[in-house]
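The protein record reproduced below.
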Amino acid sequence: MPGDCQECPGYCGGQDTFYVGNMKGVGRIYQQTFLDTYSKVTFAKHYDRKTPITAADLLNDRVVPFLDAHEVKLSRVLTDRGTEYWRQSRTPRVRALSGGRGRGSFPHQDQEPADQWHR
C-alpha cells in the first residue's frame, strides 16, 4: 500500500492466547498477549475464559489506547486463527469469506473472522 510504513510501530502486531493454569476457586486462567512486532512493546491480560470478547478486550482496553496516546495507527494484527479470534456467523457471509469454496475448504466454515466485526 502506498504510504504504508512496513518498518514502524503499529504496522503489525501479534496476538495469541496462552493457557496459564488452574487457580483454586477461579478455574482455568488464560493470558491474552499482544506484541508490536517492530517496537517489541507488549501487553498482557489474564482472563478466566478464551473467547472473542476477551481477545477484543485486550485490544480495546490496553493496546489501542496506548497506541492512540502515542499517535500510532495499528494497521495489522497477526493471529494463529484460533477459535478466540472467530465468532459464530449469523449471516450467510461465510461463503463469501471462503471465496465461494464448498464445505470443508475453509477452516472455520460456520464462523467468520472477529476482525470483520471490529472495524
Observations:
- Residues 52-69 form the longest helix (18 residues).
